[in-house]
Amino acid sequence: MRVLELNRHLTEGGLGVQVEVLLYDPSPGPGPAPVTGWPFPCTRLSPEDYFSFERLRHLVLERRPEVLVVNDSALVVRCGRQLADLVGASLVHEMHAVEQGTGRPGRGPGGPGGVQAEAIWLADAVVALTGRDLRHAVDAGAGQVSIVPAGAAPGRVSGGWVKDGPVVMAADFTRSGNAQALLTLHARLPQDIPVAVYGRFPRSLPPAVPRFELQGPVADLGTVLAGASAGIACHSEACGMRAQVLAYMAAGVPVIATPQALAGFPRTWSFALVSEQSAMADLPRLLTRLHGHPSRARALGRRGRRLAEGPLSWAHVATRAASAYRAVRPTRAGTQPHPGLRMLAEQPATSEQPTGHEPAADSAALRAAPRREGVRVR
Q: What's CA 234's distance to the chain center, in Å?
């Protein structure tokens, strides 16, 4: 949903940006992201569309964008550069995280950084979510990098800390680290504290945590946070700015999280308590601390909401995105292809250069806009 929310605010924010989204979303969840009801044209791509160069070529030629934004690094390597050169567009690779298993960053095709490093090098510019990702992109040879974090929508939910409210825990509990944190919380948390759990989980998990309310995935986490006493982020991997944490902050709920879940966030001390133990074994103690100090709990929630209303709001993030896209100067049709395209073609195929690669969740969108006068981005 990040792609769609960002482009909603690009369109509605009076930023002079025209947007179209071609969305391929294979990610699991409560259902595929809707393609209707957005203030910009949005077309869902089938796997046949997404993995066919000819179909993508036809779609891009129809739209003739000035800037083409591609999130999936494998798609950039497979044909993103060719598609951009086809219409003289600038190519932006939007990194949603440093991809695991790609090795150390390397400059240019065939380097030790794998597919993501090749995508960074082929693009005219890179958009990163966090400072950590920006440093990775620079190490991989990016010529132009901007930070455009994920955003929050604080206007949708009013709430704040409620001492007797449920503890909300949202994650993908099919991941072993998240499931273990939930089991630890169930074993150690006092029975009089209610817990509401949202996210995917294996069938074996509900019988193991009978006191907890396992709700499954929810399309908009903010709608269930009113009256919560804390928001728990138990992630064991640093993967950009977590949507769950942003939702907790937007609702004015104090956050308890692992360091990995807080990766990329500014001033984490001001809105969160940090769990330093494996599987969040210290979580019951941190919750007890919150319940025992109501003024601190309310202050954490207020400060998180202020960040969500200011530098982490979608309106602010969209302004940064528009500036990043404007800074990329389109190459016009008829110019020479990007030199990386020729060099990449000269490299032998590697095991890390996939065919039919399945992108990570929410990482497969192309954004385009028709050529008109003025600034048209994406």
A: 17
DSSP per-residue codes, 305-333 = HHHHHTTTBHHHHHHHHHHHHHTSPPPPT
- The whole-angstrom separation of Cα 156 and Cα 247 is 10
Angle between the 176-188 and 283-292 helix axes, to the nearest 10 degrees?
A: 50
How many angstroms separate the CA atoms of 103 and 213, rounded? 40
DSSP letter, residue 365: E
User: Whole-angstrom Cα distance, residue 177 to residue 197?
Assistant: 15
At 83, which helix (H) or strand (E)?
helix 81-86
Cβ atoms within 10 A of the Cβ of 106, count? Answer: 19
The string of pLDDT tens digits covering residues 246-289 is: 999 999 999 999 998 998 898 999 999 999 888 788 888 898 88
Buried b (16+ CB within 10 A) or exposed e, 266-294: eebeebbbebeeebbbbbbebbeebbeee
Angle of the 314-326 helix axis to the 2-12 helix axis, nearest 10: 80
Q: What is the mean pLDDT of the chain?
A: 80
Query: With contact defined as beta carbons under 8 Å apart, do 76 and 322 qualify?
Result: no
Q: Which residue is associated with the tokens 């005219």? A: 124
Hey, which of 48-52, 128-132, 236-240 has the most confident mean pLDDT? 48-52
* Cα 315-245-309 angle, rounded to 5 deg: 30
Looking at the predicted structure, is the pLDDT value of residue 356 above 50?
no
Residues 6 or more apart whose Cβ sits within 8 Å of residue 321: 6, 10, 127, 148
Q: Considering the entire predicted model, what is its pTM?
A: 0.77
| Cβ density class 317-346: b for 16+ within 10 Å, e for less | bbbbbbebbeebebbeeeeeebebbeebee
Coil, helix or strand at residue 230: strand
Cβ atoms of 274 and 251 closer than 8 Å = no
Q: Locate tokens 């309106």: which residue?
A: 315
Closest CA to 8 of 40, 45, 52, 55: 40
Report DSSP state, residue 100. T
Rounded Cα distance, 207 and 182, in Å: 12
**3 state DSSP class of 29:** coil
pLDDT in tens, 39-48: 999 999 999 9
Amino acid residing at 168:
V
CB 230, CB 287: distance < 8 Å: yes
